[in-house]
Amino acid sequence: MRTIAVLLCVFTLSGCFSLKSRYAQYSVVSTADLKNVDMSSLERMPAVARGEDMAPIILFIPCGVPKPEKAVADALQKNNAVLLENAVISSEMFYIPLLYGEVRYIVEGDAWRRKP
Questions:
Q1: Phi-psi category of 41—alpha, beta or left, where left has phi over 0 and alpha has psi -120 to 50?
Q2: How confident is the model at residue 4 (pLDDT cuts 50, 70, 90)?
Q3: What is the DSSP letter of 76?
Q4: Does residue 54 or residue 12 have the better pLDDT?
Q5: Within a domain: residue 61?
Q6: Residue 55 in 3-state DSSP?
């Protein structure tokens, strides 16, 4: 028990941390133009679609900036979909000071694609 307490103190004092937070929730989200899309020409896919955009942090220098729209585009591309319904966008960050870290956006939702 004492060993666990000491390890917890060491990690807390060293600055290692991981954060996850809910960024946004949308009824419908897409990166495509939906002006001429008829919902009757679409079908819902059975599995939940997931996409992400990540940027590493090396030492203390961020190597890029993740964007929620790239995470949405990734989810649509992976599933050959047109739009996501009930989409949740969340952000995650993991960082070990002066070594390595990651910042990412994750999108999950119900994918809709055109009927074959």
A1: alpha
A2: confident
A3: H
A4: 54
A5: yes
A6: strand
Q: Look-up: residue for tokens 């966008």? A: 89
Domain that includes residue 42, residue range: 15-114
Instruction: Say if residue 22's pLDDT is above 80.
Output: yes
Whole-angstrom distance, CA of residue 30 vs CA of residue 112 = 10
Q: Which of 52, 111, 113 has its CA nearest to residue 87?
A: 111
Min mean pLDDT across 3-12, 21-30, 52-61, 64-73 is at 3-12
Structure tokens at 65: 């900036």
Instruction: Please state the domain count of the chain.
Output: 1
8: in domain: no
Determine contact, residues 108/92, Cβ cutoff 8 Å.
no
Q: Sheet holding 100-114: strands in order across?
A: 17-29, 83-96, 100-114, 42-58, 61-62
Q: Residue 11 corresponds to which tokens in the numbers above? A: 């990690």
